[in-house]
Amino acid sequence: MNDATNLGTAVVTGATGGVGALYAQGLADRGYDLLLVGRQEKALKELAEKISKSSGRTVNIAAHDLSNAGELNTLASRLSGDSSVSLLANIAGTSSFSPFIKLGSDDIAQTIAINVTALTQLSHAVAPGFVERGKGTIVNFASVLAFRPWAEFNVYNATKAYVVMLSQSLQADLGEKGVLVQVVAPPATATPFWANAGFNVENLPAKAVMKSEDLVSAALVGLDNGESWVLPSLGDVSVWEAFQSARTELVKSMMNGTPAERYTKG
Ligand SMILES: NC(=O)c1ccc[n+]([C@@H]2O[C@H](COP(=O)([O-])OP(=O)(O)OC[C@H]3O[C@@H](n4cnc5c(N)ncnc54)[C@H](OP(=O)(O)O)[C@@H]3O)[C@@H](O)[C@H]2O)c1
Asked: What is the pLDDT of residues 125-135, one digit of tens each?
């Protein structure tokens, strides 16, 4: 049991997943009570029991399908009305590996519903309380694939680019109000995620794939450090800094209200 002062309640979506379960355990070990969210009630109950036993924290569960608008609203109302909530970890994510023209419309809807709509709505539910209390943390799981197109991960990559951009806007908006909005961009990690998406992770070079324990351990160090960006597999941080400055420079160069010369000919 951890003797740390109670840090409030951390809400963890995707808690039954390869990453979420370990992340939830790490939060409890740090002194958070937990609300574990996922669809699989039995798995949530078992996990809650295990974490509560090992950490001594209070662990509750909320079994919801986050792609169901009604269930998402129910959870969002619960979170917005609970002043004990101090951290929201948006870890739930889903994907389908398929050429775009073969992707089912249900798969598209599901990916956008979980990765975009649920993450946005739950963040929107907790943010007012965090601002009012002048503190709180939102952790959004994006992906390295937010920065790289991959034909068969079309919609998934786009949703993760959304997570990056939304989080960056929220950092600018909520950061000065005492709220940490953290983005975690994992590399390929060995979890059921790949099989669920319909891709054999063994087709990737083994050295490109991180162990879920290593990913979560790095993400939690990033949380302990209060970092806005957690890039678990990036050794040379100057690459990230160069990327950010290139983006700033690009936008600066485009904010001049004048068509570029190559578009004014003929
Ligand atoms: N694994 C990787 O290589 C990798 C790389 C980069 C980023 N990420 C991101 O990291 C996060 C965690 O991924 P993971 O590897 O842990 O994936 P995972 O093992 O497939 O787990 C996905 C989690 O999302 C939940 N979920 C899926 N659909 C849901 C729905 N309709 N309603 C509620 N919950 C739902 C699942 O819970 P239930 O089954 O109980 O509903 C499960 O807990 C995701 O955001 C993923 O995009 C993963």
From this structure: 999 999 999 99
For 76, residues 6+ apart whose C-beta sits below 8 A from its C-beta are 121, 122, 124, 125
- Ligand 1 shell residues, CB under 6 Å: 14-20, 38-40, 65-67, 91-94, 114, 141, 143, 186, 188-189, 191-193, 196
Q: How far apart are the first and last CA of the chain?
A: 74
160 Cα nearest atom in ligand 1:
47
Question: 265 C-alpha to center of ligand 1: Å?
Answer: 50
Question: pLDDT per residue over 3-43, tens digit each?
Answer: 556 799 999 999 999 999 999 999 999 999 999 999 999 99
Among the listed residues 23, 32, 156, 263, the single catalytic one is 156
What's the pLDDT score for residue 4?
55
Q: Which two tokens stand for residue 212?
A: 């879920």
Structure tokens at 23: 């992340």
Atom of ligand 1 nearest to the CA of 141: 45
CATH 3.40.50.720 correct for 9-236: yes
Q: How, if at all, do strands 229-230 and 179-184 pair?
A: parallel
